[in-house]
Automatic annotation (TrEMBL):
Keywords: DNA-binding, Repressor, Transcription, Transcription regulation. Residues 8-68 form the HTH tetR-type domain. Pathway: Amine and polyamine biosynthesis; betaine biosynthesis via choline pathway [regulation]. Pfam families: TetR_C_6, TetR_N. It comes from the Bacteria. This is HTH-type transcriptional regulator BetI. Residues 31-50 bind DNA. It comes from Veronia nyctiphanis. GO terms for molecular function: DNA-binding transcription factor activity; transcription cis-regulatory region binding. GO terms for biological process: glycine betaine biosynthetic process from choline; negative regulation of DNA-templated transcription. The keyword Transcription applies.
């Protein structure tokens, strides 16, 4: 966590620099030296405020996750509470928001996923992110399906979001939001037709 006193202007600058360097040379090649050069600051500033590369990567991922949470929340806020299908589509759209699919952000996500397997703090951030997505989905799906089916469908939609995002990120033509929505809605239609609503 950045120490108190880190100038607010510096944080976004260092986050952008981290993403730019990861985009260019990958996570393993993204040294503090390269990131500090990209940001136009001394390596001492990064070490002082973030305790090194791991701390800076954590702050970078927190920023990406904040943007993701804001993107989903902003979309949900505009919809009626009982517009459950539209709200599920809003959650999907938020995960494929322009910021999240930007090349630098996408490469940071991929690095984050791989690195979180070996880093407890990043693993915790990933777990929080996963719980938030499932919580949003379950809230809407429980209005459409019995509880057990809603929980299973939420896991299915989350897996589709991650899978489509990953395939799109690795595909030179990128992510197609309309196709993602069609696939996920096709899956939801199947779940709804298999399970008559019993509430």
């Amino acid at each position: 966590m950045p120490k108190v006193g880190m100038p607010d202007i510096r944080k976004p600058q260092l986050v952008r620099a981290t993403m730019a360097v990861i985009d260019r040379v990958g996570l393993h090649g993204a040294s503090i030296s390269l990131i500090s050069k990209e940001a136009g600051v001394s390596t001492g500033i990064i070490n002082h405020y973030f305790g090194g590369k791991d701390g800076l990567l954590e702050e970078t991922m927190r920023e990406v996750l904040r943007q993701l949470s804001k993107s989903v929340s902003d979309r949900l806020r505009k919809l009626p509470k009982d517009a459950h299908r539209e709200r599920i589509n809003a959650i999907v759209s938020g995960n494929f928001d322009g910021y999240q699919t930007d090349n630098k952000v996408a490469k940071t996500w991929l690095a984050f996923w791989a690195f979180s397997m070996h880093n407890p703090e990043l693993k915790r951030l990933q777990h929080v992110n996963e719980k938030r997505l499932l919580s949003h989905l379950k809230r809407e799906l429980k209005a459409l399906l019995p509880q057990n089916n809603a929980e299973l469908a939420a896991l299915g939609v989350a897996a589709l979001i991650d899978g489509i995002w990953l395939r799109g990120t690795l595909n030179p033509s990128g992510i197609d939001l309309d196709t993602a929505k069609r696939i996920i809605n096709d899956y939801l239609n199947m779940q709804l037709s298999l399970t008559p609503h019993t509430h």
